[in-house]
C-alpha cells in the first residue's frame, strides 16, 4: 500500500524515511517525478544530464555536443592500443 503525504503551501512534500531508504535517496539528491497518464506518478532518483556532468569538471575546451564523439574516439583508440 502507498504512503500518504501532505503537500505544503509551497508545493513541497516530505518523502517518508523508509521510502527514501528504499530508493537510496540522500539529502540534496535530485528526484524525477513522471506522470503516468492515468492520474498517477512515478518517482525515482534522477540521473544527471550530460550538461550537468560536464559542468562538474574543468573546461576541456570541447563543446558539450562534441563530448560523445570525442569520448568514442578516445575509447576506440584505447581499445586499438590494448587489443591491436
Question: How many structural domains can be distinguished in the coordinates?
Answer: 2
How is the CATH topology of the largest domain named?
Pemi-like Protein 1, Chain: D
Model regions low in confidence, pLDDT < 50 over at least 5 residues: none
Termini separation comes to: 56 Å
Structural class: alpha+beta
Number of strands: 2
* Spatial arrangement of strands, main beta sheet: 1-2
Strand content: 5-15%
Q: Estimate the mean pLDDT confidence.
A: 84
How many helices? The count is: 3
Instruction: Specify the helix fraction band.
Output: 25-40%
SSE order in H/E notation? HEEHH
Fold and architecture overview:
This protein folds into two domains: 47 residues, Pemi-like Protein 1, Chain: D, CATH 2.10.260; 26 residues. It is elongated. It is built from three helices and two strands, in the order αββαα. It has a two-stranded antiparallel ribbon. 35% of the residues lie in helices and 12% in strands. It has 84 residues and is α+β, with helices and mostly antiparallel strands.
Brief descriptors of the model:
single chain, alpha+beta, 2 domains, two-stranded antiparallel sheet, 35% helix, 12% strand
Amino acid at each position: 500500500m502507498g504512503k500518504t503525504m501532505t503537500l505544503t503551501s509551497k508545493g513541497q512534500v516530505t518523502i517518508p524515511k523508509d521510502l527514501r531508504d528504499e530508493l537510496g535517496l540522500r539529502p540534496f539528491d535530485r528526484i524525477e517525478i513522471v506522470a503516468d497518464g492515468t492520474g498517477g506518478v512515478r518517482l525515482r532518483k534522477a540521473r544527471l544530464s550530460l550538461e550537468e556532468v560536464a559542468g562538474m569538471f574543468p573546461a576541456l575546451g570541447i563543446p558539450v555536443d562534441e563530448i560523445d564523439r570525442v569520448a568514442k574516439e578516445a575509447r576506440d583508440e584505447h581499445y586499438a592500443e590494448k587489443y591491436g
